Every structure is written in C-alpha cells, then in structure tokens.
Amino acid sequence: xxxxxxxxxxxxxxxxxxxxxxxxxxxxxxxxxxxxxxxxxxxxxxxxxxxxxxxxxxxxxxxxxxxxxxxxxxxxxxxxxxxxxxxxxxxxxxxxxxxxxxxxxxxxxxxxxxxxxxxxxxxxxxxxxxxxxxxxxxxxxxxxxxxxxxxxxxxxxxxxxxxxxxxxxxxxxxxxxxxxxxxxxxxxxxxxxxxxxxxxxxxxxxxxxxxxxxxxxxxxxxxxxxxxxxxxxxxxxxxxxxxxxxxxxxxxxxxxxxxxxxxxxxxxxxxxxxxxxxxxxxxxxxxxxxxxxxxxxxxxxxxxxxxxxxxxxxxxx
Length: 317
Ligand SMILES: [Zn+2]
Prior knowledge:
single chain; 317 residues; alpha+beta; Nucleotidyltransferase, domain 5; 2 domains; four-stranded antiparallel beta sheet; 12 helices; 11 strands; elongated; binds zinc ion
C-alpha cells in the first residue's frame, strides 16, 4: 500500500490549477505495518506567479523554490517508485485527483488507483465521530510523538502511515450514514431520582487521552444512591473546531436506581501527561443538553487493557 500526500499552490491567476509543490509517499506492506520505503520530491513551481496564503505558510517553501525538479520529472519518478502498486491511501480523499489534474495539465499519463483508502474517514470511524479530524490532532490523540514538521508531504504521509496502526479493515470500509434517532431517545432516558452531591475523583496521570478514558478508575463510578460500583463502556464527546475534546460523558446503569451520567474532564499537564477528573453531576436539563450534543459527536469505546490495537467491538454505534 502506498500512502501519499501532496502540497500544492492554487495561486491567484486565472489558470485553475492546484499546482503541486511536493509529492511525498511511504510504502507499507500492511495496514499499520512498518514503513519500508519513502518517496519525496520537491517541485519547482512554474505555473502560478504567486503563492496563495496556504502555500506561503508551508514549512518547506524554500525547498520548492530552490528545487531543480519540475512536475513532469517528479511525476515520472513517482510512477517508477510506485511500480505495480495500485493501492493508495491518504489523509483525506482528494490527492489522487489533484495528482491527475496536474498530469492532465502536463499531458502525462494518469495515475490509476485501483483502490484508495481514506485514513481520515477511517480514523473518524475508529474514534466514533462523523467529523473530520486534522492529521496533527489525530496524531496527538494517539500519542504519536511530534517530531517532524506537519504540512511537509513526506512527513504527513509518514504520520498517516503510523496512524494506520489504530485502524482496522472495518474502519477503512466504513462510510458515514445518518444516525438513527430512536437510539438517541433511549440514551437520554436518565434516572428520575435526586441524589446528594457526589465527590470528584482523580484519574491518571496517563500517557494519552485514550489511556485515561480506558483506565479502570475512570470507568467504575458508583451509583450516587446505593454506592454500588458500576461500569462505563463508552465515552461520548463533542469535538471542538480547534483543540482536543475535554469533557467526556459516560452513562452507567444501576439495576435499582436507573441510568446516571459520569462526566470526565481531561487536562494536559506541562509534562504532556493527561489527568482526568470524574464526577457524577446532578441530572439537570443543562447536563442532558451537553450529553445530547456529545451523542452527536464522537464516541470512545473503552478497552480494558492499555493496548493500542482494537480487536472488534462489542457493538457499533
Ligand atoms: Zn443504585
């Protein structure tokens, strides 16, 4: 499988071309497997006179400007490097299309991808949201060390390949569908009992948010009425536009007193470790609204061990 990424410049002139500035790719033998080969080409821009705002911010802008490789030579080198491999993947779905847009511009043969795996969509499925997650956020979420600059095509291809270790073939096959609403109504049916104010408890420190959410201390709140220890199987959260989700909502059921919510707040310490603070808050209309919003956001299905790989899930969303 070839995992690729491109950087390009749309410029400002009328020529409607996303002019490719860099082709980066890595090769893996299997999903999440080690990187066995790397391709990188910095490409001298020759079509657009100016860089657009996005392109101007690329960390390797100087490398494109000083490159002696033009697109036709880079595309040919990439074609040779790909060999017979026709299984492509990337973070997002558009890269083969942009590659071919440039090939058409230069009258070159097109790249024919027999299959294209969108790791970004698959990752959304793996963490249980229908929203798109930026590559950097996904890597942060999985605790992948932030060693190389993002927005360099070859580095982004490498990060994408590494994130493949968190994906299953089921995640790759997933396509978004509208969520059923009946499930939602059941989910919102919480206990009618009122209960005394509950103590907060601490979780962690943990290496990643996932590890904090999977910790036994996070997943075993007590019934606020009979103090029986109960279990949380999944956490729902809203994904903010910028940054990581911080509030996670889990539901747990006491056979005698009904369903309650647990709210887990994660914060990152200065040393990069994550701390959790759990509480069983009183059930107020505001809490129900927060939970309803989280049901539309992401879901983290708990694993009992701290292992990264997920082997099948008890239940789909
Ligand atoms: Zn109870």
